[in-house]
TrEMBL record:
It catalyses: (6S)-5-formyl-5,6,7,8-tetrahydrofolate + ATP = (6R)-5,10-methenyltetrahydrofolate + ADP + phosphate. Belongs to the 5-formyltetrahydrofolate cyclo-ligase family. Its cofactor is Mg(2+). This is 5-formyltetrahydrofolate cyclo-ligase.
Length: 198
């Protein structure tokens, strides 16, 4: 990665993180409800019976309501667990979701750990992002876990990144390892983007 791209990404991430930190609890709750509605509709539209999602942190657009609801409706939900080698393990979400603090302070499930290839047979992936561009490029938070996961998949399912409405941008700084997504889910809409991820 060139210094210029790395610097641009760092600056943009800092700005996006600051904006997220300024949201009120009421704004976050409203966003989480909107995300849950959008994701439920996306699952219905795609007919997904097995999905991967993640447990949102306090500043991310909330996904926990959606995960709880999906499990209650009988959808198999895989949740990521970070590893020291840069790969993701997975655990199946259940009714009494036990959560612990994982690497980087992220909320992660406690339970039977499935290896990195477990995500290979999901019908839909829902992943975090700092921002998404109109051409489908995704800016993550700089650790590369999801880029590595997506890049190693043979057959990619539809992949949607969850962001706030203000984080859908015209373009983003990018590097060779950055992976595109199929679309973005915000609290108010779900958009399929120009560059399909599969």
């Amino acid at each position: 990665m060139s210094d210029e791209i790395a610097t641009a990404k760092r600056a943009l991430r800092a700005d996006l993180r600051e904006r997220r930190n300024l949201l009120s609890e009421r704004e976050r709750d409203a966003a989480a409800a909107g995300i849950a509605d959008q994701l439920r509709a996306l699952v219905a539209r795609t007919g997904a019976e097995s999905i991967s999602c993640y447990l949102s942190t306090t500043t991310e657009p909330g996904t926990r309501e959606f995960v709880t609801d999906a499990v209650a409706r009988g959808i198999r939900v895989l949740l990521p667990i970070t590893r020291t080698d840069g790969l993701l393990d997975w655990a199946v979400a259940d009714d009494d979701l036990d959560i612990a603090e994982g690497m980087f302070g992220l909320p992660e499930p406690v339970g039977e750990v499935l290896g990195p290839i477990a995500v290979g047979d999901v019908d839909l992936m829902v992943i975090p992002a700092a921002a998404v561009a109109a051409d489908g490029m995704r800016l993550g938070w700089g650790r590369g876990y999801f880029d590595k996961t997506i890049g190693s998949m043979e057959g990619r399912p539809p992949i949607y990144a969850v962001v706030y409405d203000t984080e859908l941008l015209d373009d983003l700084p990018r590097d060779l390892h950055d992976q595109p997504v199929t679309g973005a889910v915000t609290p108010t809409r779900t958009v399929t983007l120009a560059a399909s991820a599969h």
